[in-house]
Amino acid sequence: MKKYLVAFASLMILGFPANAQKVEFTEFDLDNGLHVIMHQDNSAPVVITSVMYDVGGKDGDRERTGFAHFFEHLLFEGSENIGRGEFMKIIPANGGTFNANTSQDRTYYYEIFPSNKLELGLWLESERMLHPVIDQVGVDTQNEVVKEEKRQRYDQPYGGILEAIGSNLFKVHPYKDPNIGYMEHLDAATLEEFNAYFDKYYGPNNAVLIVAGDIDLEKTKTLVTDYFSEVQARPEVVRNFPQETPITETIKAKAYDKNIQIPAIIATYRTPGYGKRDAYVLDMISSYLSGGKSSVLYKKIVDEQKQALTIQAVNLGQKDYSVFALFGIPQGETELSTLLAEMDEEIVKMQTELISERDYQKLLNQFENQFVNSNSSIAGIASSLATYYLLYGNVNLINEEIDIYRSITREDIRDVAKKYLSPNQRVELEYLPKKDDQ
């Protein structure tokens, strides 16, 4: 049981990218529209090359969901100059590591190398962007890989919670569909559709390249220009997603999971997206409610009253709409309605009273610690630079975001809780064991 709760927490708590000591960076654009950010840190002989593309699960035909996540895998297949399967052999053979990940809003690829392999990292990412091989063999291979990933990550106890949240909280915006997509959509897709998707979303003017670590800025700029200038710009991606109608009455819903025996209760709210001041306040609210074993909800419901196996309040950040969720799995004979009422009681207190000065200072200390401890690696800095540029539209947040948290007052916490977290603004989702006849 415990491992599934941890897995859910890791899916839900994406967290905000905080900052460490002041990060110096340099930006420039190539003629093809590729935005480049460089960060020089010669304290260790390590370099990271990474590219974040402005494409995620929300993009594309709703009858062909999951393409962005599929491409996260497909673009490791090879290129005109890299044989099939060689991409993932070249990197470790040269002392490097690599990975990629996809959200509803973006796709991120990176390689970490000894600094004398900088040029190799740039070449690999330019090959991915310039002329990857997208053929039927690669599509068929990765289709099976994605299906196996779905079995391992989603077809597990409580693994369908995010999909259930999305499909009930969103009705018209593409956040309603799971990031991994529907397998029948991938099965039905043609090779022409995959190539068209690449041509639309993987142009240099729809991406940001980060080079960070033990580099020389002028030499690196020259190398970036040499390797990426040949890539042709694509037409600008135009998005016009439908907007959700505000929730003004409580929506009650149920979802079923054949892999669980204990039900869960989830109350979800649509909240402001990345970069909005209220989104930062909601980060603090989620930490106040369930940030550790001394938090309000854990101490009351799990520790003292022993009504829940786990309890959480999370603010899942996204670009267009974020999701604030209250989540609990009951212990013993506790009813789901009782668990939700206990959580609501603490929300109401936040809406009507100021949190104590002591709790407020504790919150500030938590965020200060995250500020100090985060971006302590070159990989963390690279990811933050890309994220702040692409999703927030302000790279300087890597140094300035902590000041936003510092400026939040106890009154702000009360007012934002009142503004967004009332029962008439949410979906109350009962996540239940699936019976054989269902």
UniProtKB/TrEMBL annotation:
Q: Domain of life here?
A: Bacteria
Record-given protein name? Pitrilysin family protein
Where does the signal sequence lie?
Answer: 1-20
Residue ranges occupied by any Peptidase M16 N-terminal domain in the UniProt entry: 36-176
* Domain spans labelled Peptidase M16 C-terminal: 189-366
Q: Which family does it belong to?
A: Belongs to the peptidase M16 family.
Q: Which UniProt keywords apply?
A: Hydrolase, Metalloprotease, Protease, Signal, Zinc
From the record, give the transmembrane residue ranges: none
* Organism name: Microcosmobacter mediterraneus
